[in-house]
Specification:
The chain has two domains: about 10-115, Arc Repressor Mutant, subunit A; about 130-220, SCP2 sterol-binding domain (Nonspecific Lipid-transfer Protein, Chain A, 2-Layer Sandwich), CATH 3.30.1050. It is about 35% helix and about 20% strand. The chain has ten helices and nine strands. It has a five-stranded mixed beta sheet with strand order 6-5-4-7-8, with helices on one face. Strands 1-2 form a two-stranded antiparallel sheet. Strands 3-9 form a two-stranded antiparallel ribbon.
């Protein structure tokens, strides 16, 4: 269902534009609006979504705002929608190939944003899918020849699993029986620990409990941000 052939004339139909002949400006004409990249995030994490799935994954977004953004993303060729057959029997939204090409952009923004995750505000929403994608996107297995292992994450009541095997870091939302390591704490502490932003001592100081094979944390090697081109 991917459509990589865009009609770039739709860009000029948008009301908001920087009107600059610059690739950064042209890109921001499309993805610079509030909520747009977070919609892309949810479609990358969840796959094809119903409108309600997207709204549930975007706490704080107004229904009319989400409808407007989806319409704009469809007009600019970043998403497509289609009628799913029974038993779903509703409209599903999906990224086009052009929209899916934003994944490395979001990963780099996320890596850059990790530096700004030093505090967790009381009014911040937090979801299990956000707990799951961070180690998958921002870490690598430092011991690809090591034995398979599972890590249970519990952050703010949300659960996710990390599986290390064959050099890959896989994650999913949910619970696993008999994990090799359990990390339970605040979102700031758990995410900080698994992404290498804080160490074990700091995580414990923030009230986290870590049970099991602590050495597995050494296998979660933070992926560095793209180095500057000299």
């Amino acid at each position: 269902m991917f459509n990589h052939h865009l009609d770039f004339s739709v860009y000029h139909a948008r009301v908001r534009s920087y009107d600059q002949y610059c690739s950064i400006a042209r890109g921001l004409d499309i993805i610079g609006d509030r909520w747009t990249l977070l919609i892309v995030r949810e479609l990358l994490l969840q796959g094809p979504c119903r409108f309600t799935d997207l709204k549930n994954g975007l706490p704080g977004v107004a229904t009319n705002m989400l409808s407007s953004r989806l319409k704009e993303l469809e007009q600019t060729g970043l998403i497509t929608r289609y009628d799913a057959p029974p038993p779903v029997a509703t409209v599903l939204y999906e990224l086009t190939r052009d929209g899916a090409d934003l994944e490395p952009v979001l990963k780099q923004i996320g890596l850059w944003g990790l530096r700004r995750m030093t505090d967790d505000r009381a009014d911040d929403a937090f979801q299990a899918s956000w707990l799951a994608y961070a180690p998958a996107w921002f870490t690598a297995d430092a011991n690809p020849d090591g034995p398979p292992a599972t890590i249970q994450l519990i952050a703010g009541g949300q659960e996710a699993v990390i599986a290390l095997e064959g050099g890959s870091v896989r994650t999913w939302v949910g619970h696993v029986d008999h994990p090799d390591l359990v990390i339970d704490g605040s979102p700031r502490a758990v995410l900080g620990l698994v992404t290498g932003m804080i160490d074990l001592k700091a995580a414990k100081a923030l009230g986290s409990t870590i049970r099991g094979k602590h050495q597995l944390l050494q296998r979660l090697h933070p992926i560095p941000a793209t180095p500057e081109v000299e």
